[in-house]
Amino acid sequence: MPLTGEYLPSPADWVREQVEAYERTGGREANTLRDTGLPIIIVTTRGRRSGKIRKFAVMRVEHDGEYALVASKGGAPDHPLWYHNLVADPAALVIQDGPVPFDADVREVAGEERARWWTRAVAAYPPYADYQQRTDRAIPVLVARRRT
User: Fold this and answer.
1) How far apart are CA 76 and CA 125, in angstroms?
2) Are 30 and 23 in contact (CB under 8 A)?
3) CB–CB of 147/104 below 8 Å?
4) For position 35, what pLDDT does the model report?
5) Is residue 77 part of a domain?
6) Which of 44, 49, 114, 142 is the most exposed place for a label (fewest CB within 10 A)?
7) Of 96, 29, 5, 87, which Cα lies nearest the Cα of 57?
8) Residue 60 lies in a domain
């Protein structure tokens, strides 16, 4: 069942515009990170404080039907807000990778599993390695799986 409620678009113009174009075209447009040519997916979650629907793009890191959501925030010292939203409600998640969004559940990974996903993430988007060097925090990796 898709998330319902009031949608609060991102305050960042480029994020808001990318989400709108991706959804409007079923992922045929706005499906890469700006001019990098590297693919993204759209993530929908619910704000843990506001209860409002939030949408944003993350790098597409897919393996065997699961997706890594890397909470890098460009190597900032704090986690992105969406990370806290997903930790607070791991079932409040919709992923869109192409024309049809699907419900998913997410979990944070650690140890060897995190290491495997981190390697996949850096292969998909090499700047993640630089982001980790910029911060003292271990960048969280969450893995999303389609809900059955």
Assistant:
1) 17
2) no
3) yes
4) 84
5) yes
6) 49
7) 96
8) yes
CA distance 112 to 82: 24
Q: Which residue is associated with the tokens 């890469």?
A: 32
pLDDT in tens, 91-126: 999 999 999 999 999 999 999 999 999 999 999 999
Closest CA to 125 of 47, 69, 45, 49: 69
Question: Do the domain assignments include residue 33?
Answer: yes
CA distances from 96 to 49, 56, 60 (A): 24, 10, 10
Instruction: Return the DSSP state at 13.
Output: H
**Residue 120 belongs to domain with CATH number:** 2.30.110.10
Whether 7 is in a domain gets the answer no
Domain count, the chain: 1
pTM of the model: 0.95
